[in-house]
Amino acid sequence: ELLSEAERAVLVPVRGGVSVAGRLLSEVFASAVAVAGVDAVALVAGDVSVSYGELDARSSELAGLLASRGVGVGSFVALGLRRSVESVVAVWAVAKSGAAFLPVDPSYPIDRVAHMLSDSGVVVGVTVSEYVSVLSEAGAGVQWLLLDGESDSAAADLDSVVLPVPSLDDAAYLIYTSGSTGVPKGVVVTHRGL
Length: 194
What we know:
Order of helices and strands: HHEEHEHEHEHEEE
Largest sheet: 4 strands, parallel
Mean pLDDT: 90
Strand order of the largest sheet: 4-3-5-6
Shape: globular
CATH architecture: 3-Layer(aba) Sandwich
Number of domains: 1
Number of helices: 6
Number of strands: 8
CATH class: Alpha Beta
């Protein structure tokens, strides 16, 4: 016996916290807006600050554009971005589109990026002009949407796009292992798991 009777009496009745019902990643983000308010600051990056309302609007526009490109439940979208306002906008947009995001650090070795893009089956990615050439070289079949590029003509009628709603057991994101013991492997995390 590792515990005395007194220690066992104190510890055995202890239970974990009450479980919380699962929520979709997009619902988690939406509740943050509801709690903080649309005018509250959501992000600060250097001199730039973005309100929850701006973040919500920008991510909704991108989600509509992604959906118009065929992205939805069951799709993976590569995010070829470093940590930035754009990366948060992109994560939220992918969540709103019903798809799952795949973070791809543009500074990774090109062979690793190529493996991640090929293995995941990604056909659409989001990046900025700074990284598009190296990402295009790594993933020849990926259509890259530029967050800092010209306004896309397909964005004209995004109000008519219906965004699908995933289930809690659909993928929220895909992350690749380090590959230290061989080839990096993709691990899917569901909304319930997240």
